[in-house]
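Go through this pair.

…
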Amino acid sequence: MIDFTTTANITAAEALTLPGLLELRAKRSPDAPAYHQYQSDQNRWQTWTWGEIGREVGRWQRALAREGLDPGDRVAILLANAVEWVCFEQAALALGLVVVPLYPWDSPENLAYLLTDSGTRLLFTGSWEQWHPLAAHVPSSAQLHRVLLLTKPDQGAAATSDITFTAISSWLVDTGAQPLPRPTRDPDALATLVYTSGTTGPPKGVMLSHTNILANAEAILKVINCTPGDILLSFLPLSHAFERTVGYYTPMMAGCSVAYSRSMEQLAEDLRTVRPTILISVPRIYEKVYAQVRRQLDTRPFLVQRLFALTLWAGWRHFEAIQGRAHSSLAIEKLLHPLLHHLVARKILDRLGGRIRLAVSGGAPLLESVSRFFLSLGLPLIQGYGLTEASPVVSTNMPGCNLPASVGRPLPGVDCRIGADSELLVKGPGVMLGYWNQPERTREAIDAEGWLHTGDQAAMETGIIHLRGRLKEIIVTSTGEKVAPVDLELLIVTDPLVDHVMVVGEARPYLAALLVPRQEAWEALARKNGVDPDAPSSLQAQDIQETVLLRLKGILHAFPAHAQIRAVALLRDEWSIANGLLTPTLKLKRAVIEERYREVIDGLYRGHDLPA
């Protein structure tokens, strides 16, 4: 039996650096579980203790020290979440190297840009198949000289390259008792370059120090209780600052264990197998579960639908009573809510493993109705706010102080204020060192007083932050009306018909939308309107267009007339990370989508008068 009482949180001052954090954790709780990973060759889940991870990182560190790299040199990781990701990153950081995390499903062109822009000298990736599409885009002037692979390289193809390719199995030779190289101990040194998603332009390399990240993780643990008995299921990419700080360094600081999901396709099964106590996700995952439940509910008898509605009503009353914002009757608290929770809500929560005590949403705004849905079912869901440039968490709701319409209060040690144009400004130990090789962009982002300009519009009420949209994403129609498209999109995407949607209308007379329907829902809608769902012309059928517009009108009924959708283009295309239309955190790449569908958008306004 592991004594979890001996694994208290490690402070930033104690750790000093990120490799110092692992070193302390391995010493403080060597026999406690650290990571769980599915081993496909053994058809089972394997568990590593903190002590085992510490020793394994030492092996990687000795191997990496032989590369002759200097402190400050950049090394990149192009790999799915795995124990190997952790070992390589920790080994590199201990040697004073700067880690550049890359998204495995990013486009070859963008990956080559990031490798070149960062001056990466060594890349660690999964397989030759993962490297091959990238190879043609890496210029000869790039500083990359070695690629480490989890599997064996293609020797014939490798022989024609100036880059050396090595399999990890031969690279990680037994180094015996060779002393470890002296680890870096400078907390203010550059630890990592985290490239932004580039929703509105080329990616920028955000420079974060050891102190930036450790201070952010420590502040999170001051308001969110994590215990060594907790287990997280990690499925968001470690390449993203949100998952890396909240789902990697914070658990290490608290002594929690982390299980790495096999894939997004196997996430549902992994949730039931791992049964995590803490779930960290972007809104898109919660939205998908919400939409799936709604689709299934639409096919159920009227009485079942009414029972579900009653469950949500009683659950919300219970939640508001716990928050001290409402009084709940004895009948609801003692009889109705427990009964409905057992009969209805528990079945949905069991899909998420059945024992989640904290669910976190970040990386993008979460629609209040989706948050209320899960809170009413009894899922303790909190929403926070942050950005890569702040390491990344700025504010968060807390289980005992949870206002779903907000992103909560600033973390301890983080100052926030509202600047010109209602822009949220942030100051604190997590604010980045700057943008890599872009001093002018750095000066634009961080003013002379040290305030980080987030680009997000917000309001603060009694210290609680309410987001109002992105400054650069506000649509100004030709009539002078201003609309935040995200507010509309968040509502529209909750409709079971909608997979993706983007609202357009900049300098146009009215708003329109590009809409990608879900396949099953589209087929049902098409047949209901008497058209062949597989016929290309069915997307433009008048009855379909009128039905969808009427549906959008119902969804957006609370918005003013100038914020209504007056034209829509239905698309059968896939919007994904792989084809460059979504960022790795599933946000819309607006500029890219607008360019790809420029003719379609023009057609939404060509010959159309402003409807009454």
In short: The first strand starts at residue 33 and ends at 39. The longest helix spans residues 302-322. The radius of gyration is 25 Å. Confidence is low (pLDDT under 50) at residues 1-6.
